[in-house]
Amino acid sequence: MKLLSFIVPCYNSQDYMDRCISSLLVNDEEIEIIIVNDGSNDGTRMIADSYESMYPSMVKVVHQENKGHGGAVNTGIKVAAGLFVKVVDSDDWVDQEAYQQIRMKLKALVAEGKAVDMVVSNFVYEKTGKRHRKVMKYDRNLPEGRVFTWDEIKSFRKGQYILMHSIIYRTNLLKECRFTLPEHTFYVDNLFVFKPLEKVKRIYYVNVDFYRYFIGREDQSVNEKVMIERIDQQLKVNKLMIDGMNIEQIKSPKLRQYMLNYLEIITIISTILLIRSRKKENLLKKKELWKYMNEKDIELYNTIRYGVMGRMMNIPGYLGRSITVSAYKVSQKIVGFN
């Protein structure tokens, strides 16, 4: 059995996948790199096959018809042979020194018989045109040097969350809970770091800047203009998160609050994008989104809608929307998101 499986979803990734895959290659037979060629029509297939040919004991390639990012991740989870699994997008990469520390820690946890469901590390925003690199760290939120539970975490500040870039899951946790992502849908990484959390009982934090998250390409899915064009997919993910959030079933108060905060920020982003589009039909979709939450879970709705951010997002009229957008622009500069 492998120690760690990396899933690398690739769709027309020929221009940047080399940097990603080469950063994952190490002289360690316990590492597995699963390249999922998701119906690419450029040179992705050839590049992927060349890596499998050069590193047959480490690289596994799966060619499939296009199913989107979620479908590629689903395929990777199915074939993963590692005790742990991590998704690395094909335009991102990992830091070599941090990678070494991650591998050593995973091996130590297994050797010591310390079962963990999730390992968390830091990630770095590698943003185009920015000299200063923003690091998302968790040293003020999570205990270090030991296995811990949700009840031992500290509060997260606004704009700070455990994203896909931060997480390594125990592979069987995802398989046991039959976790799958919707196909042909963008922004499913939010579901990846949300839906399994109730099943996570034991966590370990490694305080290293492991994942390098490249952000700022004009065609990137998290580019604001692109997100507005794909707003229906953002709303689909948002609603699936609402569907998967049952306040009463979450036993840990701290996990409950964390998940509430995460769902809140996703709903705020959806709302902002709908307002920023300046389309009448999207203002109707904004009302429909909040109505959906209200009808699905009134307690959840009241908690988010009447919090500070929820109130700000729903100030009526043109002036109210202007205030909302101004607050958003300030947040962009402070938090550093797209």
Please tell me about this protein's structure.
This protein has 338 residues and is α/β, with parallel strands linked by helices. It is built from 13 helices and nine strands. Strands 1, 2, 3, 4, 5, 6, 7, 8 and 9 form a nine-stranded mixed sheet that branches. Strand 1 (2-10), helix 1 (17-24) and strand 2 (31-38) form a beta-alpha-beta unit. The radius of gyration is 20 Å and the shape is globular.
Uncertain spans, ≥5 residues at pLDDT below 50?
none
Q: How many E strands?
A: 9
Q: Approximately what portion of the residues adopt beta-strand conformation?
A: 15-25%
Amino- and carboxy-terminal Cα gap: 39 Å
- Largest sheet geometry: 9 strands, mixed
C-alpha geometry: globular
Counting H and I runs of at least 4 residues, what is the number of helices? 13
**What structural category do the secondary elements indicate?**
alpha/beta
Roughly what percent helix? Answer: 40-55%
Calculate the mean pLDDT score and round it.
91
**What letter string, H or E per element, gives the SSE order?**
EHEHEHEEHEEEHHEHHHHHHH
| Rg over C-alpha atoms, rounded to the nearest angstrom | 20 Å
